[in-house]
Amino acid sequence: MFPDPRFWNTAGNTVSIWVLSTVPQLALALVPAHVLNHARLRFALFFRMAVQVPYTPTATKMPPEVVPGGFDWFDWFDCEPTDVAPHPR
Questions:
Q1: What angle do CA 10, 14, 18 make, to 5 degrees?
Q2: pLDDT tens for residues 1-18?
Q3: d(CA 81, CA 73)
Q4: Cα distances (angstroms) measured from residue 58 to each of 2, 20, 54, 63, 70
Q5: Closest to 48 in 3D by CA, of 62, 59, 37
Q6: Phi, psi of 42 (to 5 degrees)
């Protein structure tokens, strides 16, 4: 795998895409974070809630069948949970 030039090309592409996407997003996220944490900003709580409120319905409307620990959603597909551990023979 390591001597293959396609591996190094792919690894280089992955790292460059990561750098080109992560660094600008982080830099752009620090600007509103600094503004929201500034003590003299009026209605700071409103702006903080405006960012968080769209994520709230997703978490609160999660159906109980999909909550971790329950396998009730297997009934939707008429199947049984599969044991992934190999059985001794």
A1: 170
A2: 888 899 999 999 999 999
A3: 10
A4: 42, 29, 8, 10, 19
A5: 37
A6: -80, 145
